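Both lines are retained for reference:
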Amino acid sequence: YEGWCREGEARINWATHVDFIHNLIRGCDPAPGAWTTHKGEKLQLFGSKKHLARTFGAVKGKTGEVTSVSAGSLFITAQGGQIEISKGKLGGGKKLSAAELGIAAGTILGA
């Protein structure tokens, strides 16, 4: 039996494989919420889907980079593919859809 997941274990390391990040986000949803940083503020991520790349060359962007933003999703690069996020919570605010977070494509998270 593993104890409750705490904030320290919920921090996302974008250099790890897409499978690990996807499972971390799913396991921390809804609480405590897997998190990273955006412009020095805590950003919690929810509603994860993973998209594996067949080859290393097929992976778009740098690790932790937001490569695409749509009305319902935010795509973030990780080792071996991309993570699609549907909701997030920036700082002390409330959960918002990916588009409402105001994060632009090209942003590097966790830097």
The two ends are 33 Å apart (CA to CA).
